[in-house]
Design goal:
About 40% of the residues lie in helices and about 20% in strands. By secondary structure, it is α+β, with helices and mostly antiparallel strands. α1 runs antiparallel to α2.
């Protein structure tokens, strides 16, 4: 009996990779929750300590023993235990808990604000761009292509991509001596030019390694510099720097050898002016400060109220003890 083989053709595309910044966003969202839990634990500990310090009873209460009756007098029934009152009313507990939550929220806002401030003050180059580290990318194909860059914002002019990002810059340094081309074009036009061209699409960077998706199987019909689809472009020997002001729409970045030959080996780095970064930092810090002051005020009000209650309770206890001692000497 002979085995029969049937050829199978599979045509599929990999899912787009997750953003490499997703882990950072996840941790920034997790940090406030851990801070809230820490302050809830602190609030519970403070309440327990204060309650234990207020746990004493006034003389003559909280015990079933009864002083001996006066001679010839009737026996008296034991005094009932006095209900324990530590001064922690419902309002003070709510004030302390809400204050702790506000302080935790302020810390949660302050941490990302500090990280953004560090990027704004110490992460800019001489030209004012916040720039990423250089990433080596190599492909034996004819082109390196970015995934689709979607820039759509139904927002006022101050919140458009160009207002938030400012000018963007892509620097590409070739490993060899061949002239290099880098350009950005509308995605539809770039896809039309590269329709059947063998290329690698950069979908993500994981653990310092680019994630590339291979497409096409043919050579380009013309060098990239001879087509008029580019919104911005740069070509020549050595490092090429492409500066572009973001516009609304779908965009694709293409890196090729200037003559359209196969084999692209570059070091790439991306940057942006991000003029809104400073405003964002100061806004977060201002909100964090206001929330912190409100939280501290609520915590202080709760603790101050308990402290005053403690002083009044001790004064009443001392007055009652002195009066009882005086009556016993008469």
């Amino acid at each position: 009996m002979t085995a029969t083989t049937c050829p199978v053709h599979v045509d599929a595309e990999l899912d787009a990779g997750l953003s490499r910044w997703l882990w950072l966003v996840t941790w920034l969202l997790v940090i406030p929750h851990h801070v809230v839990l820490a302050f809830l634990w602190l609030a519970s500990a403070v309440r327990s300590v204060v309650a234990s310090e207020q746990g004493g009873h006034e003389p003559g209460y909280g015990t079933t023993s009864t002083p001996p009756p006066p001679r010839g007098g009737p026996a008296t029934a034991p005094l009932p235990p006095r209900p324990h009152d530590s001064g922690w009313t419902a309002g003070r507990v709510v004030s302390l808990t809400l204050g702790a939550l506000l302080v935790a929220s302020a810390v949660g806002l302050g941490l990302p604000a500090g990280a953004l401030a560090a990027a704004d003050l110490g992460g800019r180059d001489d030209e004012g761009f916040v720039t990423s580290d250089e990433q080596p990318i190599t492909t034996p194909t004819y082109a390196l292509v970015s995934s689709n860059l979607e820039l759509h914002a139904d927002a006022p002019p101050t919140l458009t991509p160009s207002a938030l990002l400012g000018d963007t810059r892509l620097s590409v340094d070739p490993a060899g001596a061949r002239p290099l081309f880098v350009g950005i074009a509308p995605t539809a036009a770039a896809e039309d030019y590269l329709r059947d061209v063998e290329r690698d699409v950069l979908t993500d960077v994981r653990a310092g390694e680019p994630v590339l998706l291979r497409r096409g199987d043919a050579a380009p019909t013309s060098p990239p510099g001879e087509v008029g689809i580019w919104a911005a472009r740069s070509s020549g020997l050595g490092e090429q720097s492409l500066t572009w002001t973001p516009e609304e729409g779908d965009w694709t970045v293409v890196v090729m050898n200037a003559d359209g030959s196969a084999g692209v080996d570059v070091q790439a780095a991306a940057g942006a002016e991000v003029p809104a970064l400073g405003r964002l930092v100061w806004s977060l810090l201002a909100v964090a400060l206001l929330v912190l002051l409100a939280g501290v005020a609520l915590v202080a009000a709760a603790l101050r109220g308990v402290s005053r209650y403690d002083v009044r309770t001790r004064d009443r206890t001392a007055t009652g003890t002195g009066a009882g001692a005086g009556a016993g000497t008469l």
